[in-house]
Amino acid sequence: xxxxxxxxxxxxxxxxxxxxxxxxxxxxxxxxxxxxxxxxxxxxxxxxxxxxxxxxxxxxxxxxxxxxxxxxxxxxxxxxxxxxxxxxxxxxxxxxxxxxxxxxxxxxxxxxxxxxxxxxxxxxxxxxxxxxxx
Length: 134
Fold this sequence. Notes:
Blueprint: H1 2-26, H2 37-66, H3 73-89, H4 96-113
Helix pairs in contact: 1-2, 3-4
């Protein structure tokens, strides 16, 4: 799981750098903004999402190394949402393979979020002890 998220961090960050470089070298400006704004925002988006997925990969790696529940559950839940929503809309415009890969990563993240090696969250509910006549 950690390798998938690290690869996704690189796979998200690197492609965002390419359009930023192209727009920067061509000095293009779509519909009026400063020509420097577009490449900077494209590169910044790549860096932010790349580091975000790398951070999720770090959490997954720490879970694997220490064999305990993830401490970055909020980060992982955010990553699950990022995979669930675009994945749901990917079937029509992009295709079934992208939809299935997004669902696979979503399922792996959900399994990681719910991982509890001690089983503390799955203990059965016990009824309170009956009062003793005393």
